[in-house]
Amino acid sequence: MDPSIAPASRAALVTPNDTAIVGARALYIGTAGDVAIAPRRDMDPVIFKSVPAGTILPVHAAVVALTGTTASNIVALF
Prior knowledge:
Layout: E1 11-14, E2 26-31, E3 33-38, E4 46-51, E5 55-57, E6 63-65, E7 72-77
Antiparallel strand pairs: 1-7, 2-5, 2-7, 3-4, 3-6
């Protein structure tokens, strides 16, 4: 299967940080809130507002920023 469309094969808890590289293919949001994601490390984060608990955000997340993130129990999917 083409790796770009294959399901995630690894997961890790995310601690939001304004500079740490996550590099996730998608994020699982465990506790509802806002999620600030930079799709590339050289881009400013975009805030996804009021993301419900249990949502999988199918976006590349180079950085999950602390500033602007209120959601918790976030899991990176690789």
